[in-house]
């Protein structure tokens, strides 16, 4: 029976590792390749940590399995080792992990800076956010600046509006202004590996560079009420020309139903 | 701090302590209900929290049901809720949101925290340090009886706002969702009652922790120096410190939120605006007046709730160390490193709260500091893990359910901890934040670690509580089933997280990229039901052994702690005569012990003649 | 400690009574409690682009605050003396000084309530303060409406006019307008009804004034434009795309209110019910923090007073058993004092 339990504890990490091992082939893994440059960096770090952590996991579980098996097979009545511990070991297993941990945190810094520090980010795109995304219960409202103008913090006559669909050009760093009209939400695109909370009262810049044209999910990742799960939207990445075309169409559409004023034909 | 040199007893007098012992032949009411005896109070806490575990578990199973069979009407329970929900037991999104909110609130505030500090802290502290009771027995009793108003408030909050509008803003209750009554059906009366419940729980643990600290500092038996205290006591002490310095901040924040919500409480238009920025338009209501900051709440909340997660772990760590040493007939490996690492965890625990806000648009420089401190907190945890393994190493293992649960504790804590490392890394957390990866992480540490530790502790101290042993093979079955069900439920959550499945979603499959995860969720739900019903083994065994369990002597496990020198169950005042402590608690298989022809030696047993003292610490 | 046979000769721990140790630890938690408030205050203040400091806006009274600081310090001293007296078993003296402490505490609360009144009289209450001119304009209108409805309720409740829906103000107006010529509804004595006939015109005028203001607000038209609905709608109709009429000016409204208050007919209700418009940027968050911190401090003062009252209730039977109690409540009292010494400069001076 003792041996059974020892094996029990040796067995389960093997299962766990096996599941992780087959997961990618079963689709229990990232929804797609990272579709943004930052995404690649994030995945890189993820796999680095995954590697280190897997080693630690295997290490600790082997140690567990060993001591358990040793205990299970110990001749009954034999006397237990009498020891209050070992200074040498304590020092070893304090120093080694601390190096690993410091190493991990150091590897993060650069990417963190790329994602969060706005000054790391090209002037021109910084001054020209392509759109303002406003979250509200339970939808995403997109506001593009009137073609030829730059996005202003407050809505301008001639701005173009659309709901739950954001069009961005590929292969170029784009910046959006993220804000919320009511409670807190979070702008999450799994394929692009982008996530940023939309905090009431703040306008938060978010930037990313989509590498491949395509349609990606945009969902909400901060509890915002009963409809939290259904804030479903799409990010459409396409060539700059197509984006301009889309904007132009949007503009015509709006002028037909007379939402915007008639002074917008000087855009191109 | 406290010295070995004894100081005059005349000092140690508590004003209200005298009342604590006014009654020697007491009425049933004062003996079992409004008792000031720490043992009774501890047991009261234990039973209450076990019941709450059922409630929280039931809620969890409802959550799982929705995730496996979205919008499918629930069995039994569904009909149950259906009564006042008018949807034939079909879970509505509001209802789902309420389910996980209350699941978390119950599990954290009414199960884990009170079961560790309340139940075992109360029962063990005086017994293990050789005191006849807590420093302030009346306060102690109050700390239990403040649980009930809290439970009552949480209960009311289910229905206060109407059946489908229970509190549903997550256990973190971020404003503005939890602040503006119009923000959601659940943000009205329900949220207010929820906040009252939270505050009352706080008051209860507050009273507890001041009491524990005083008792541990001032009421140790002669010879019980700080470094002769069992790790359980150390963990309870450090936890109490954490509680008393973190909790007031949450209480303060709670008050601020209540004042923001004054309008939904009293017929007045006066209300503070701490968390309300100006010009917010919720549900087409008039724009808010304001000037407050929603993020302030997150800082205050996590300043408490991160230390709180260690409050929910440290006592289990301490108890597991005790039990492992006993079941391996071996001193704890590296006693002092264990103590220091617990202290380090507590200390660091105060400067990492920001890791819950990595995506909140916090200043990047702050993000980096919080990341580094969070990484660093893995270090003391590492030390503990390795020392536990060292304790098992080459011991005389007893493979009973107590030991198995402890081993489970260590194994599960490693998993939970390691997943924490991913999230500590800001860039990676940007992807993982608010996905099921987080949910996996904290269930591994909260259930996988803490609850397994609690299961072990229940069986280990059961004989001391009731003078009878629990049936071990039933406990083994309980362990095996729970362990399997647990991993079946929560291990796949890591993969869901990697697949980008956000948490708190009533119907994730609405999104194309998650549809294919339904089968996996159904598997998880089945495992959860298995694990859930496995808990009936525990409860059944608990009840059965209470009446018919094999009688246990004073020291059924052959352990060293002071509590084992007292009768089981100990009478009023605990010890036959005030105990004196001669050595540390972990001198298993020491030369001294062998001199007595056994592999343990009670802390109260004087060193046998002609044996050199083997106590490695205690001075 | 132990009440059992064996004398509790040996005891570990530190040489102070549990009760005192407990009190120290409790105060530790109290410190964290107020630290949370103070921290939030700092965060909120630094996070805001402005902060009301001018006494004209905040109605903070540094003098009263200073006096209160002094009062508390003296009271703390009295507790110390009282405790010493207890130690010397001079209980009469102890009682006198505890009494002094208690009365100083009362004085503190007295002064505090004067300060609070100063704020309430200017409606410096969180959630009430208008932060922009336009907000204060609509505030005036809201308060005016409230006054009008209050006046009209006199008639509806008094039975001078009989309506099924008293809240439907428009229907009430016509009935009240008919009162001066009308005659008492049966069941009402004439002399009572005459009262109403006297007041009715004034109240109607007040109603018209409010309605006028209200219409200008909804239509967002300057008061200089006459506000018979048809006319300002016409005025708006004439507007070209994108054009707007001049907005309702802050001064216009301020003057309107001044005139109303000048008019002795209904001056009393108006000046009671309507506050002069006075926008204060970040006023609400200021008021929130001010009342939060001073309020919780006041509660602590009251608790302290209860502690001392318990001792004084012993009267002449006060004995050395109470020494620890006095000492601990003294500790607590010093803490309350200390908190105030932090709050005073933070809220009153900086
Ligand atoms: C008992 C409870 C408990 C415990 C002990 C922990 C422990 C840790 N937690 Fe966890 N945490 C929670 C409960 C807990 N957590 C809860 C409830 C939440 C979610 C709240 C919510 O949003 O609802 C949460 C969320 C949470 C987040 C926020 C995620 C997000 O929302 O985006 C983060 C981020 O850093 C984090 C990190 C950590 C870390 C680094 C540890 C570390 O202490 C772990 C240290 C342990 C180990 C690392 C394993 C043992 C060590 C070794 C085997 C040595 C070798 C290891 C290495 C060299 C890597 N936790
Ligand atoms: C100690 C804390 C603790 C514990 C023990 C548990 C236990 C469980 N939790 Fe818990 N959970 C949390 C703390 C905890 N959880 C927290 C903090 C959150 C975050 C909430 C938020 O986002 O705000 C959360 C969220 C959470 C989610 C995510 C919801 C979401 O984000 O949408 C899920 C989903 O599967 C889940 C499942 C479970 C399950 C299946 C168990 C199982 O272990 C439960 C097993 C059951 C029992 C142990 C009791 C057995 C009782 C019975 C079988 C009674 C049967 C009786 C009837 C049916 C009448 N939990
Ligand atoms: Cu929007 Cu969640
Ligand atoms: Cu944390």
Oligomer: heterotrimer
Task: List SSEs of chain A in N-to-C order.
Answer: HHHHEEEEEEEEEEH
Low-confidence stretches of chain B: 1-23, 82-86
The outline of chain B comes out as globular
Helix/strand class of chain B: mainly alpha
Topology order of chain B in helix (H) and strand (E) letters: HHHHHHHHHHHHHHHHHHH
Count of DSSP-assigned helices of chain A: 5
Give a short synopsis of this structure.
With about 270 residues, chain A is α+β, with helices and mostly antiparallel strands.
Describe the structure.
The complex is a heterotrimer of chains A (about 270), B (about 625) and C (about 350). Chain A has helices at about 1-25, 35-75, 85-115, 125, 240-255, and strands at about 130-135, 140-145, 160-165, 165-170, 175-180, 185-190, 195-200, 205-210, 215-220, 235-240. Chain A is α+β, with helices and mostly antiparallel strands and about 270 residues long. In chain A, the strands form 2 sheets. Chain A has a 5-stranded mixed β-sheet. Chain A has a 5-stranded mixed β-sheet with strand order 4-10-9-6-7. In chain A, strand 6 and strand 7 (about 195-200) form a beta hairpin. In chain A, about 35% of the residues are buried. With about 625 residues, chain B is mainly α. In chain B, about 65% of the residues are buried. Mean pLDDT of chain B is about 90; it is low at about 1-25 and about 80-85. Chain C is an all-alpha fold and about 350 residues long. Chain C has helices at about 20-45, 55-60, 60-85, 90-120, 135-160, 170-180, 190-220, 230-235, 250-260, 265-275, 285-315, 325-350. The longest helix of chain C has about 30 residues, at about 90-120. Residues about 1-10 of chain C have low confidence and may be disordered. Chains in contact: A-B, B-C. Chains A and B meet through helix 1, helix 2, helix 3, strand 7 and strand 9 of A and helix 5, helix 13, helix 14, helix 15 and helix 17 of B. Copper (II) ion binds near residues 306, 355 and 356 of chain B.
């Amino acid at each position: 029976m003792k041996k059974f339990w020892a094996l029990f504890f040796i067995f389960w990490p093997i299962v766990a590792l096996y599941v992780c091992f087959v997961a990618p082939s079963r689709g229990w893994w990232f929804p797609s390749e990272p579709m943004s440059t930052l995404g690649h960096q994030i995945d890189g770090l993820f796999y680095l940590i995954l590697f280190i952590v897997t080693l630690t996991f295997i290490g600790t579980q082997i140690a567990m399995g060993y001591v358990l098996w040793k205990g299970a097979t110990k001749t009954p009545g034999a006397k237990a080792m009498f020891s209050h511990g070992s200074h040498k070991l304590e020092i070893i297993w304090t120093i080694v992990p601390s190096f690993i941990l410091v190493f991990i945190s150091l590897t993060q810094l650069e990417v963190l800076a790329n994602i969060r520090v706005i000054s790391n980010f090209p002037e021109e795109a910084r001054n020209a956010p392509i759109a303002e995304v406003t979250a509200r219960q339970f939808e995403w409202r997109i506001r593009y600046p009137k073609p030829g103008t730059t996005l202003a913090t407050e809505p301008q006559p001639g701005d173009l509006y659309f709901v739950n669909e954001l069009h961005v050009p590929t292969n170029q760093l784009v910046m959006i202004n993220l804000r919320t009209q009511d409670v807190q939400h979070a702008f999450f695109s799994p394929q692009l590996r982008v996530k940023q909370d939309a905090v009431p009262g703040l306008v938060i810049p978010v930037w990313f560079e989509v590498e491949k044209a395509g349609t990606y999910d945009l969902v909400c990742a901060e509890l915002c009420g009963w409809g939290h799960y259904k804030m479903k939207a799409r990010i459409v990445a396409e060539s700059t020309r197509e984006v301009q075309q889309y904007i132009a169409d949007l503009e015509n559409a709006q002028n037909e139903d007379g939402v915007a004023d008639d002074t917008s034909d000087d855009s191109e | 701090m406290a010295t070995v040199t004894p100081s005059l007893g005349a000092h140690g007098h508590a004003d209200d302590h005298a009342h604590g012992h006014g009654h020697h032949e007491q009425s049933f009411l004062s003996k079992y209900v409004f008792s000031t005896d720490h043992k009774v109070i501890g047991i009261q806490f234990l039973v209450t929290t076990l019941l709450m575990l059922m409630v929280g578990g039931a809620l969890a199973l409802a959550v799982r049901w929705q995730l496996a069979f979205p919008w499918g009407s629930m069995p039994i329970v569904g009909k149950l809720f259906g009564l006042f929900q008018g949807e034939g037991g079909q879970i509505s999104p509001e209802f789902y949101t309420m389910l996980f909110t209350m699941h978390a609130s119950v599990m954290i505030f009414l199960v884990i925290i009170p079961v560790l500090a309340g139940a075992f802290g109360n029962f063990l502290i005086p017994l293990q340090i050789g005191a006849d009771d807590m420093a302030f027995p009346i306060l102690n009793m109050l700390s239990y009886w403040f649980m009930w108003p809290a439970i009552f408030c949480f209960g009311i909050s289910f229905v206060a706002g109407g059946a489908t509008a229970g509190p549903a803003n997550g256990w973190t209750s971020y404003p503005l969702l939890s602040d503006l009554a119009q923000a959601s059906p659940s943000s009205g009366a329900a949220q207010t009652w929820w906040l009252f419940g939270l505050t009352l729980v706080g008051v209860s643990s507050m009273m507890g922790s001041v009491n524990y600290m005083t008792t541990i500092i001032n009421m140790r038996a002669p010879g019980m120096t700080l470094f002769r205290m069992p790790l359980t006591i150390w963990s309870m002490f450090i936890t109490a410190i954490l509680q008393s310095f973190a909790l007031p901040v949450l209480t303060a924040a709670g008050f601020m939120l209540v004042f923001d919500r004054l309008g939904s409480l009293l017929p007045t238009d006066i209300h503070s605006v701490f968390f309300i920025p100006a010009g917010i338009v919720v549900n087409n209501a008039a724009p808010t007046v304001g000037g407050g900051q929603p993020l302030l709440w997150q800082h205050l909340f996590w300043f408490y709730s991160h230390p709180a997660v260690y409050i929910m772990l440290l006592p289990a760590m301490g108890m597991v160390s005790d039990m492992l040493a006993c079941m391996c007939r071996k001193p704890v490996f590296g006693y002092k490193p264990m103590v220091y690492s617990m202290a380090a965890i507590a200390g660091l625990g105060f400067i990492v709260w920001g890791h819950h806000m990595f995506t909140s648009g916090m200043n990047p420089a702050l993000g980096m500091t919080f990341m580094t401190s969070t990484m660093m907190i893995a270090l003391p945890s590492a030390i503990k893990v390795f020392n536990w393994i060292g304790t098992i190493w080459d011991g005389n293992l007893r493979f009973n359910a107590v030991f198995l649960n402890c081993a489970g504790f260590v194994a599960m804590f490693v998993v939970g901890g390691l997943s924490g490392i991913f999230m500590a890394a800001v860039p990676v957390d940007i992807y993982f934040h608010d996905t099921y990866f987080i949910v996996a992480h904290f269930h591994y540490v909260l259930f996988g670690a803490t609850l397994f530790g609690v299961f072990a502790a229940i069986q280990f101290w059961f004989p001391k509580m009731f003078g009878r042993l629990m049936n071990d093979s039933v406990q083994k079955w309980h362990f095996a089933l729970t362990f399997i069900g647990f991993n079946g439920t929560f291990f796949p959550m890591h993969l869901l997280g990697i697949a980008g499945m956000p948490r708190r979603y009533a119907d994730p499959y609405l999104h194309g990229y998650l549809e294919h995860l339904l089968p996996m969720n159904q598997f998880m739900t089945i495992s959860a039901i298995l694990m859930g019903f496995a808990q009936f083994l525990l409860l059944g065994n608990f009840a059965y052994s209470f009446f018919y369990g094999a009688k246990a002597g004073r020291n059924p496990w052959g352990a060293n702690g002071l509590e084992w020198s007292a009768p089981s169950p100990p009478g009023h005042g605990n010890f036959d005569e005030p105990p004196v402590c001669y050595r540390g608690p972990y001198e298993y298989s020491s030369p001294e012990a062998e001199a007595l022809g056994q592999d343990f030696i009670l802390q109260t047993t004087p060193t046998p003649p002609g044996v050199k003292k083997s106590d490695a610490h205690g001075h | 400690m132990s009440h059992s046979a064996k004398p509790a000769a040996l005891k570990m721990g530190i040489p102070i009574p549990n009760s005192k140790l407990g009190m120290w630890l409790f105060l530790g938690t109290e410190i964290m409690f107020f630290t949370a408030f103070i921290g939030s205050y700092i965060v909120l203040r630094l996070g805001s682009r402005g902060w009301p400091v001018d006494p004209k806006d905040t109605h903070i009274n540094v003098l009263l605050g200073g006096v209160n600081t002094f009062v508390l310090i003296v009271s703390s001293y009295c507790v110390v003396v009282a405790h010493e007296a207890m130690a010397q078993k001079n209980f009469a003296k102890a009682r006198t000084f505890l009494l002094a402490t208690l009365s100083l505490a009362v004085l503190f609360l007295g002064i505090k309530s004067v300060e609070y009144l100063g704020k309430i009289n200017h409606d410096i209450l969180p959630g009430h303060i208008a932060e922009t001119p336009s907000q204060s304009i609509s505030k005036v209108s809201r308060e005016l409406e409230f006054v009008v409805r209050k006046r009209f309720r006199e008639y509806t409740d008094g039975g001078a006019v009989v309506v099924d829906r008293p809240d439907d103000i428009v229907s009430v107006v016509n009935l009240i307008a008919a009162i001066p010529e009308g005659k008492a509804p049966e069941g009402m004595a004439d002399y009572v009804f005459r009262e109403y006939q006297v007041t009715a015109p004034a109240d109607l005028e007040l109603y018209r004034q409010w309605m006028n203001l209200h219409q200008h607000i909804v239509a967002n038209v300057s008061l200089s434009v006459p506000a018979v609905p048809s006319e300002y709608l016409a005025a708006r109709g004439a507007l070209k795309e994108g054009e707007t009429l001049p907005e309702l000016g802050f001064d216009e409204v301020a003057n309107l209110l001044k005139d109303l208050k000048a008019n002795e007919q209904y001056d009393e209700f108006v000046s009671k019910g309507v506050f002069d418009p006075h926008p204060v940027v970040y006023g609400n968050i200021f008021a929130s923090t001010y009342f939060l911190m001073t309020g919780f401090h006041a509660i602590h003062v009251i608790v302290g007073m209860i502690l001392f009252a318990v001792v004084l209730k012993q009267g002449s039977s006060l004995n050395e058993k109470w020494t620890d109690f006095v000492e601990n409540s003294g500790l607590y009292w010093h803490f309350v004092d200390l908190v105030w010494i932090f709050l005073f400069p933070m809220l009153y001076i900086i």
